[in-house]
Amino acid sequence: MNSHEMHPNDPRLHSWIDSANDPKSDFPIQNLPFGVFRHVSGHGQPAICVAIGDRILDLRGCQQDGLLDDLAPAIQEACTALSLNALMALGRGAATALRVRLSGLLRIGQPTTRENHRKVEQLLTAADEVMLLPPAVIGDYTDFYASVHHATNVGKLFRPDNPLLPNYKYVPIGYHGRASSIVVSGTPVRRPGGQSKIADATAPLFGPSNSLDYELEVGFFVGRGNKLGHPISIDRASEHIFGLCLVNDWSARDLQAWEYQPLGPFVGKNFATTISPWVVTLDALEPFRVPAFQRAEGDPTPLPYINSREDQALGGLDLILEASLSSQAMRDRAIAPLRVSRGNMRDLYWTMAQMVTHHASNGCNLRAGDLMASGTISGSTADSLGSLLEISRRGASPIQLPTGETRSFLEDGDEVIFEGWCEREGHTRIGFGGCRGSVLPARK
Amino acid sequence: MNSHEMHPNDPRLHSWIDSANDPKSDFPIQNLPFGVFRHVSGHGQPAICVAIGDRILDLRGCQQDGLLDDLAPAIQEACTALSLNALMALGRGAATALRVRLSGLLRIGQPTTRENHRKVEQLLTAADEVMLLPPAVIGDYTDFYASVHHATNVGKLFRPDNPLLPNYKYVPIGYHGRASSIVVSGTPVRRPGGQSKIADATAPLFGPSNSLDYELEVGFFVGRGNKLGHPISIDRASEHIFGLCLVNDWSARDLQAWEYQPLGPFVGKNFATTISPWVVTLDALEPFRVPAFQRAEGDPTPLPYINSREDQALGGLDLILEASLSSQAMRDRAIAPLRVSRGNMRDLYWTMAQMVTHHASNGCNLRAGDLMASGTISGSTADSLGSLLEISRRGASPIQLPTGETRSFLEDGDEVIFEGWCEREGHTRIGFGGCRGSVLPARK
């Protein structure tokens, strides 16, 4: 079989860009995640791109150089945009067609012309010579609460008598987050100020948060949207998902605990949310789909509008997620970041399709570029907890760093690093790239 | 004193557009609210405008015809934009300067040239010949909960043992709403489907909401934004407010009751929010500022970051608000809408400045065009309740319509109409125009 007959996910494919063939690379030719970049100089307009090994490929350039001439005009035009929104809006088919074409241009053994090969080479840049920007203009950001382990753990801490509320196993609980304060990996995060109240104090005080936390989440971007008033059926939901990224939903636990009743988290969350810059498409993740969460005996069956055989069979994703922590003292002594948890997206109680369908079930319109996030992903074991709140049990059992420092919550100078990847026998590893952020001291 | 020496709020000013001098007009020359319109034909691009009497004045046309030549180039450019965001972003001073100029062009007795007068006449259109569009591209929408009467009334219904939570008098409680589903007055609203659970049922069911409600609110648009990580002090907060509109925060009470814990309202609210098309500037409302809410004895003093002498002295607004209801049967029999409540924005526990400052107190960045809403405005009396939930006490005491029909919540075909205006001895009445929406049956 020739390379040009192979599916873009075929593990036998190799790229003529050597770094993409390193088995440890997040970005083999089977991945081709989309992003938005600008040259480090700051000159020039942002352009959309894909990652391949340690390079990025400029898609506006590809269009301008005629490398995408075989694709529909709308796809070509979307490749010249300043963000991924236009491509997202075209729906899954467009992204699939573009990915097939790019895979063809980048693989070994494709009967591409020498001329095209030369053009592509000119449009590659070392990833460390560009700035990666947020991949889309995010209209609305919705954060779910899809990990039953997380919901139970947090429930125990905040409502010991009533950890998991009666609606949890029926409703994919979610709430609207703040779009304006979503930042891309690498952006420092300022410790927020806010009101908090010590348990036995008579009144709250305003000051810097004393319990700043991260939340390890997976995000997914809406592709084609729906019209206001038109729900999305569970069987069509995945057509509305463009791809996935990593999300750190920074949380100030003291602010959150004091404010969150009755309308939910607000200033405890909306000071910053960090996303990874690369959007890994559902196409690239296809080999890693797994059955939906296995509900415990006695758990209710999902209501029909969020229940489909296909989604139950393949709605989960076997995506490994790691959170690591690095203090200033660790970096000063060149000590590597400490892994504090390893979880897996397959542990989510609700699938992405269930979240999308529930979100639009009342007719709420989703728009291309909207971001949904899973909520903190925790597993059932002590080493798979997706937040410090859970790991330290709200400060009752701090973790120890290699320097001898301890952490119940984040200190100034701490860096939080998320990694995510899929791997499976017989398939090429697909990585997400990192999602990083470090904590700046509160403003005086 | 000549007209050109008079302040734009001076009640002695008259416009050469007769309809603006009708004492019942919402849009006298002292108002000049901003909006966005497009010709009913649908031809041409949207343009920003002001309302004057029964006309609208095209501001892009004013700029192109040189009528704004004396203004700063940035203001002129903002007048050519497709939405108000650019003007909002310039801050209060820009809107003030533009308003002064427009007042000059529209008033009687201003020594404007005959040529200018003729140009302005050409740029006026009858308001009923244009479509009014949402005034801004709304990045983020935040809904507060600033009426202590509403919070107490709702609290009694949902948590009889614990109506007003301990944080209420310290924290201007708010949550993020949905930006995508904000629609402009006149857009029909589809009855949403969703999960609800009858009190003694073992499981929820999915179906059309049985308790669709309105919420009578006031919205305010962010003008100049703040950078991420940079809070806004209470004394600068009003510099970040561009102007006000009316808001109907449609709510499906059955969906909301089942879903809202622990993360707040989601599908119970995000299917639609209706806003009035005109943004009344803080400048126009200046004569109607009143002291902030008089806290009861024993209530805590606001924490210092949301407490300022100036805001306490003039942070309230004497804005009268009315909600009316019209059923299909009433319209069939030409019966006028029934007024179901009359409230006043001065009854809010928190001022707009307190809401803005609290919102940004953790460094959250506000952007020009962001919308904040007050939350349902209810007063202390039975005739000033801002939602059917409160009026009918969750269905326990339905209201009677002139046709003999009763309403606990909204029925299909019902139209909800909000009106708002300021009036005060010695000042010209300032109106908001209406905010209307009617209920379409649930989709099959």
Structure characterization notes:
The structure is a homodimer of 444-residue chains. Chain A has 444 residues and is an alpha+beta fold. Chain A has twelve helices and 27 strands. In chain A, strands 6, 7, 8, 13, 14, 16, 17 and 22 form an eight-stranded mixed sheet that branches. In chain A, strands 9, 20, 21, 25, 26 and 27 form a six-stranded mixed sheet that branches. In chain A, strand 25 (415-424) and strand 26 (427-431) form a beta hairpin. The mean pLDDT of chain A is 96. The interface between A and B is large, with 67 and 67 residues.
List the SSEs and their pairings.
Two copies of one chain form a homodimer.
Chain A: E1 34-39, E2 47-52, E3 55-58, H1 59-64, H2 73-78, H3 85-89, H4 92-106, H5 114-122, E4 124-126, E5 130-133, E6 141-144, H6 148-158, E7 174-176, E8 182-184, E9 189-190, E10 193-196, E11 205-208, E12 212-213, E13 216-222, E14 241-248, E15 251-252, H7 253-259, E16 273-275, E17 280-281, H8 282-285, E18 289-290, H9 309-314, E19 316-317, E20 320-326, H10 328-332, E21 338-344, H11 352-360, E22 371-373, H12 388-391, E23 399-400, E24 406-407, E25 415-424, E26 427-431, E27 435-440
Parallel strand pairs in A: 6-22, 8-16, 9-27
Antiparallel strand pairs in A: 1-2, 1-5, 2-3, 3-4, 6-7, 10-11, 12-15, 13-14, 13-22, 14-16, 14-17, 18-19, 20-21, 20-25, 23-24, 25-26, 25-27
Structural class, judged by helices and strands of chain A? alpha+beta
Beta-strand residue percentage of chain A: 25-35%
**Could you tell me the number of beta strands of chain A?**
27
What gross morphology of chain A would you assign? globular
pLDDT < 50 stretches of chain A: none
**So how many helices of chain A?**
12
Pair with the most extensive interface?
A-B, 67 and 67 residues
Overall helicity of chain A: 10-25%
Report the mean per-residue pLDDT of chain A as an integer. Answer: 96
Largest sheet of chain A: 8 strands, mixed
Radius of gyration of chain A: 22 Å
Oligomer: homodimer
Amino- and carboxy-terminal Cα gap of chain A: 65 Å
